[in-house]
Amino acid sequence: MSLFLLSVIIIHSFFLPGGISILLRAFPWFIPLLIIIIMRFQLIKKTSFKQLRWKYFYAFLLLFDLSWLLVFWGLRDGMNDSLVAIEAMLDILILTWAIALFPNRNAMIAATVPLMLSVCAIRLNAFPQSPLFPVTKLICFVAIVSTGQKIMESWFIKAVSRDVEKKKLVLQFRRLALVDGLTQLSNRRQFDTILEQEIRAAERNHNPLSLIMMDIDFFKRFNDSAGHSAGDECLVAVAQVLTETVKRPRDVVSRYGGEEFVIVLPSTDLQGAARVAEATRSALMSRAIPHPASDVSPCVTMSQGVCQWQSGMSSEALIIAADELLYRAKQAGRDQFKVNG
Fold this sequence. Notes:
This protein has helices at about 1-15, 20-45, 55-75, 85-100, 105-125, 130-180, 190-205, 220-225, 230-245, 270-285, 315-330, and strands spanning about 210-215, 250-255, 260-265, 300-310, 335-340. The chain is an alpha+beta fold.
C-alpha cells in the first residue's frame, strides 16, 4: 500500500507545473520512507511483527508516520496545487492503519493520531483564515476511528468466538465418533483405523506387531445376577485396569464390543505381548471386582487371545486369528490366555 501511494504521489507531482524539479528537490525526503519499507520487509521475512516487543512496534509506527510526513514536506513547493491530493493520501493512510491495527487500540492510536494532526496542520497552514473545517474534520476522524475500532473489535471477537465454538463442536463430535461413551476407550471404528495404520507401519519398518483380544468371563451371568447398571460399572472398572496396565504411548486399548476389549501393541513381539496379557490378568485379579455368578473365580476374570502379525496378513486375518486364540482360552477353562505359534 505504501509503495502504491508513493507511486501515485510521484506520478501526480510529475504532471504539476515544474513537477520534475519538485521531485528532484523532494527525492532526499523519500529516502527515509524507502528505508522503513525495506526494514518492514526484512522484519517480516526474518521474524514477523508478532515476535517484536510492543515498544519497538510503536516506535516503528511513529517512524513510519514521520517518514511519510517527510515525503509531504519534500513536496511542499507544490503543496498549494496538490493540497487535495495530499490530504486524500493522508486520509487513505489513516484508514489503512485503522483497518490494519484495529485489534490493538493503542497501536491504532499511535499510528493514526499523528497523521490526523498532520492533516489538520496542513489544512490550517494552507488556509489559516478557515480553521473550522480542519478542526471539525480532526474531531470527526478521531470519533469515527475510535468508535469504529470498538465496533470492529466486537465483530472480530464475536467472529473468533463463533469459530472457536465451531471447532470445539467439531472436535467434540469427532471425539464422540471415535471414543466409547461408557469406558472412554477407543471404540471399534477407531480401533479399525489404528490397526490398519499400525499394520502399514509394521510392513514399512519391518517391526513386530501384536494384538490381544480379551473377553470378560461369564459377563452375561454377571448382568443377569447383578443387573445391567452393575455390569456397566464392571466394564468401566475393567477399562481402567487395562489403561493403567498398558502405558506405552503407541499402545492402544479399545472396546471391541459388548464385554470384549482389544489391545494393539506396536513394536511388540509375541513374548512381549504375552507379558502384557499376564500383567493385565494379574492387575484384574488384584482389582478383585466381585463376580456373583462365575464358575472360575469369585472375582471378574478375562480370557485372552494373543496373536502376532505376520507379513502379508490383513487386519481382518489378524483379528480372526486372535479371536480363535481367545476361543481356545475359553475352551481351556477361561481366566487365561493363549498365544499363536
